[in-house]
């Protein structure tokens, strides 16, 4: 199993540009989570999906952020327009929550380090 | 919502000594408590977890204890080694009927093991 895959691994962009982060969850997982990590705020949950449906987006900082999951194997997090304060590491994680309790562990991808100049 | 507090924020120990990291949570309905280890520049990785029907769980040098009444749980690392140096995060969640287990994370503890 390749694990959770994220791309790009690093992104440097200028303020005002659109940024799209991509995630491929572990095959068979039915939950997908987007997190943001900064030194100041730690790990923050932005949004999560169950069976491709957004369940809770209360962590999305503002309307500039949007996320989609068009199918079970792909999700995107888009920032438009980007701002310097969006600079952070963005992690995607997936889990399988309808199996045995021991299988609902969240597995994190390698993250995308975003720098907005 | 759930609020998870973690202490200390930094911890330095001599190699071979034990390290203890403590977390408290606010929502008595939380029933799943994982611990993640994050090495510099890497992703958080699960090292151990405990559910509310268990008071203690061990895995080699790592153990986690849970006190539901007091709403706190702790990570214990014995015989620490330099490779244990990392940031450790505790988290809490409640697995409802939807099966969701969105995690609420503590602020992390930076553990340094001095050779």
What order do the helices and strands come in, and which of them pair?
The complex is a heterodimer of chains A (117) and B (115).
Chain A lengths: L4 E3 L2 E4 L5 E6 L6 E8 L3 E9 L2 E4 L8 E7 L2 E6 L8 E8 L11 E2 L3 E5 L1
Parallel strand pairs in A: 2-11
Antiparallel strand pairs in A: 1-3, 3-8, 4-5, 4-9, 5-6, 7-8, 9-10, 9-11
Chain B lengths: L3 E4 L2 E5 L4 E7 L6 E7 L6 E7 L4 E4 L2 E6 L4 E6 L8 E7 L11 E2 L3 E6 L1
Parallel strand pairs in B: 2-11
Antiparallel strand pairs in B: 1-3, 3-8, 4-5, 4-9, 6-7, 7-8, 9-10, 9-11
Helix content of chain B: under 10%
Uncertain ranges of chain A: none
Rounded to an integer in angstroms, the radius of gyration calculated over CA atoms of chain A is 14 Å
What percent of residues of chain B are in strands?
Answer: over 45%
Core attributes:
heterodimer, A: 117 residues, mainly beta, 0% helix, B: 115 residues, 6-stranded mixed β-sheet, 11 strands, globular
Q: What does this 3D model show about the protein?
A:
The complex is a heterodimer of chains A (117) and B (115). With 117 residues, chain A is mostly beta strands. Chain A has strands spanning 5-7, 10-13, 19-24, 31-38, 42-50, 53-56, 65-71, 74-79, 88-95, 107-108, 112-116. In chain A, strands 2, 4, 5, 6, 9, 10 and 11 form a 7-stranded mixed beta sheet that branches. In chain A, strands 1-3-8-7 form a 4-stranded antiparallel beta sheet, with no helix packed on it. In chain A, a hairpin with a 3-residue loop joins strand 4 (31-38) and strand 5. Chain A is globular. The termini of chain A are far apart. The relative contact order of chain A is 0.33. With 115 residues, chain B is mostly beta strands. Chain B contains no helices and 11 strands. In chain B, strands 2, 4, 5, 9, 10 and 11 form a 6-stranded mixed beta sheet that branches. Chain B has a 5-stranded antiparallel beta sheet with strand order 1-3-8-7-6, with no helix packed on it. In chain B, a hairpin with a 2-residue loop joins strand 6 and strand 7 (62-67). The chains are: A mainly beta (117), B mainly beta (115). The interface between A and B is medium-sized, with 23 and 23 residues.
């Amino acid at each position: 199993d390749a694990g959770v895959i994220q791309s790009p691994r690093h992104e440097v962009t200028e303020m005002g540009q659109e940024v799209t982060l991509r995630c491929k969850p572990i095959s068979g997982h039915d939950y997908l989570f987007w997190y943001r990590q900064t030194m100041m705020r730690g790990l923050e949950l932005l949004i999560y999906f169950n069976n491709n449906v957004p369940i809770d987006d209360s962590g999305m900082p503002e309307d500039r952020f949007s996320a989609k999951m068009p199918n079970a194997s792909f999700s995107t997090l888009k920032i438009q327009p980007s701002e310097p304060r969006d600079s952070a590491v963005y992690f995607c994680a997936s889990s399988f929550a309808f199996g045995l309790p021991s299988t609902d562990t969240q597995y994190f991808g390698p993250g995308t380090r975003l720098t907005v100049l | 919502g759930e609020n998870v507090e973690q202490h200390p924020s930094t911890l330095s120990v001599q190699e071979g000594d034990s390290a203890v990291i403590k977390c408290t949570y606010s929502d008595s309905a939380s029933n799943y408590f994982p611990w993640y280890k994050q090495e510099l520049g890497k992703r958080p990785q699960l090292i151990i977890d405990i559910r509310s029907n268990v008071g203690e769980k061990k895995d080699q040098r790592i153990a986690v204890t849970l006190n539901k009444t007091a709403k706190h749980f702790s990570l214990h690392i014995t015989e620490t080694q330099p490779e244990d140096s990392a940031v450790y995060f505790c988290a809490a969640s409640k697995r409802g009927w939807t099966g969701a287990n969105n995690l609420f994370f503590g602020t992390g503890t930076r553990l340094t093991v001095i050779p």
